Structure formats: C-alpha cells, structure tokens
C-alpha cells in the first residue's frame, strides 16, 4: 500500500511541473540585474561583463514621446543570439525586459514602456559567440510616466 | 488578453495586449497599495516556445507585446498560446488561431 501511495504522489508531482520547461526566469536566476540602478550595473549583473560592441543592433523609439507612460520601443537585429535585454536610464531601476531566444526567434521585439523622464534606451544582444552587442536611442519625454 | 497572429512571408507577426495595471513600486507607494506587474510572458505554438520574456515594472499599463517568429514553427490554423504571470503569482492564458 505504502509503495502504491508513493507512486501516485510522484505522478501528481510530475503533472504539476511547469509547462514551459525551456524558459528561463531571469528575474529568479539574475535577481541583481532587476534592482540595479544604472544600466552598466544591470548589464554586469545580467551578463557578467559590460564590454559592449556598438553595432548591428537597432533601437527604434520616437525622438520626442508625448506620453512617458507608454513609449513605443522596437529592437531589431540579425545577430545570431541567445538573449536580448532592454534597459533605460530614466527610471529608478534600469532593466525593462529580457527575451530568451531559440531557433524560431527573430529579433524584432516591440514593447511599450514607462519612462519617468527623458533618457536613453539601451538594447543589449547576447550573441551566440558570447559577445555583447549594443544599440541605443536617446529620447525626450514630455510627460513622465511614473507619476501615476 | 487580445492576441493577433498573422503569417507574413517567412515570419509570423504577433501582437499581444495584456490587461494589467503594471503598478510600479513608486506608484503603489503613492496609492498605499502593493506593487504588482507582469514578470514573465511566453508564447508557444505546437508545444514550441516562440516568445519568452522576463519583464519588469516599467512596461506600460495594459502592456503591448509585439514580436515575430519564424513561420517554420507554425502554419495557418495553428493555435498560439500566450501565458503571463505577475508578481503576486496570478497567471492568465489565452490562445488565438494563427491567420
């Protein structure tokens, strides 16, 4: 009886495993990157280095954003990559989002983000060659988005 | 959640709009409540992960996620399933047929 009960339990435990087994929760694996106050510290916390190559990463955002509560940002690149992360320097902390890539991914990510004030959006592409590629876009924010 | 997924050439173009307040720590403090925002969102089709993002408090309210993935992962009529989870552990899943 005991053994049967144990078997039943282990089946239940397997069924409860998260469905997305291949996904990494970067908030859990790299917690320091999400509380870092500067873009440089966040990049170091996430990637262990802040040696960046400035090429082949395109960050698109309006030059002047009328509403800081929803600034449209797009990151595009053709670099074969493992991850892509978006940072900004207008808010108390700098990390915005980390995308994990696989063989189906295309680096063309659009998001709407909050910016408290004018600043620079930085996108880092972690290439499959282990190097970090970066693209930037500075913009003015007319009305800050974190006030409420 | 509102989802649009359309095949265009070699890529599937997707737009997802999640309904969430995305309350930052600062905003929550002012309102006297707790911060809560989407911390992870992913999309899959035919059991293949085609989008996976760990996210922070700085996405807009009712955040919009736009992305593309290779059309080799799906064909028209397949279902794209999107799931998000927030800081408090709430999850929401929705799916949409790819056009």
Give a verbal description of the structure:
The complex is a heterodimer of chains A (148) and B (99). By secondary structure, chain A is an alpha+beta fold. Chain A has one domain (24-141): Immunoglobulin-like. Helices cover 22% and strands 39% of the residues of chain A. In chain A, the strands form two sheets. In chain A, strands 1, 3, 5, 6, 8 and 9 form a six-stranded mixed β-sheet that branches. In chain A, strand 8 (119-127) and strand 9 form a beta hairpin. The model of chain A is unreliable at 11-21 (pLDDT under 50). With 99 residues, chain B is mostly beta strands. Chain B is built from one helix and seven strands, in the order E-E-H-E-E-E-E-E. In chain B, strand 3 and strand 4 (48-55) form a beta hairpin. The radius of gyration of chain B is 15 Å and the shape is elongated. The mean pLDDT of chain B is 95. Classes of the chains: A alpha+beta (148), B mainly beta (99). At the A-B interface, strand 4, strand 6 and strand 7 of A face helix 1, strand 3, strand 4 and strand 5 of B. Strand 6 of chain A pairs antiparallel with strand 4 (48-55) of chain B.
Spans of chain B with pLDDT under 50 lasting ≥5 residues? none
Helix content bin of chain A = 10-25%
CATH fold label of chain A:
Immunoglobulin-like
How would you write the strand order of the largest sheet of chain B?
A: 4-3-6-7
Biggest interface in this structure?
A-B, 40 and 37 residues
Q: Secondary-structure blueprint of this entry?
A:
The complex is a heterodimer of chains A (148) and B (99).
Chain A: H1 2-15, H2 26-29, H3 31-35, H4 39-47, E1 52-53, E2 57-60, E3 64-65, E4 71-77, E5 81-88, E6 95-100, E7 105-113, E8 119-127, E9 132-141
Parallel strand pairs in A: 1-9, 3-9
Antiparallel strand pairs in A: 2-4, 4-7, 5-6, 5-8, 8-9
Chain B: E1 2-8, E2 11-17, H1 25-31, E3 38-45, E4 48-55, E5 64-70, E6 79-86, E7 91-97
Antiparallel strand pairs in B: 1-2, 2-5, 3-4, 3-6, 6-7
